[in-house]
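May I ask you for just one protein sequence along with its backbone structure tokens in two labelled lines?

_____
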Amino acid sequence: MSETSKSDNIDLENWMRDLPEQLRNVPIIYLAIPGSHDSMTYGITRSSGLAPDAEPILKRLYPIFEGTILRWTITQAVDSYQQLLLGMRYFDLRLATKTGSDDFFFCHGVYAGEISQPLNQIKEYINKHPYEVVILDFQHFYAFTPDDHRRLMRYVLNMFGPQLVPRQADLNTVTLNAMHRLQQQVIVVYRDRAVYATGEFWQPQMLPSPWPQRDDINGLYNFMKQVRRHPGMGFVHQAVLTPTPAFILFRWLSNLREKCAKPVKNEIYPKLSEFTPGRPVAGEDKAPVNVIIADFIEMDNATFSKTVIKLNLKLLKTDISHSYG
């Protein structure tokens, strides 16, 4: 069977369950895991309104160029449940409060919907798929008070409870098999100092996610190749282009999908085969991949998630028992 047909035969809905037993005993920080960038922007609509993270230029232009701005803030086309069915196991979450409401909302310059439905979809999915593990990365918080953090953390703790993977001193113990034995399926990374109020959430340094901040393919590729990571921690490679206002100005009538996501799909995805998951080794010239995130993850029959998941097979060519046993 060719490598291509092997890739196409992956059951994306249950890919963690279906990994070879040796890989289910590899620490999760050394597996290749596909994720979505700005995961909840599919919820952005014309009635969304500007969010607290909107840049000043957006606030000036929004009343006139609302449609254009929305085309450049939406990075995903399918909801969280569909993303899970397509193999996503990491969600990049940006949250904001809204004046006059006690609810929390996802955002990306504009509001992208209240958080309960997407999180309930994730809860429903893991309940139906006991071998799958999901990473929820609470990446940014806008217009949050200390009390807002307490309320949000309580909400997440109440929703996932015993399914959470507590913060660990040694992440080498966190494997798919170990989590399944403990019936734990959700890793929450909480990127605020409020994380220290509970032992159930992981600290930001346990899963660094450096921002490439590049609007050209070569710059992005070089960043991904040259970035370094700590051997004992997880890592996020961001396979995304970041459009600047100047970049958008010259592509005003287009959108992020056409001018950012598709070039990454065409030019970066094929190069992902050069990367390898596993433990970082001192002196090596590239960082092994762990989580890799992208925009519009459904494109071309989910070629992104298939490409990333297939990278795990490279670990079978190493001495797994010696490296991770």
User: Anything to note?
Assistant: The radius of gyration is 19 Å.
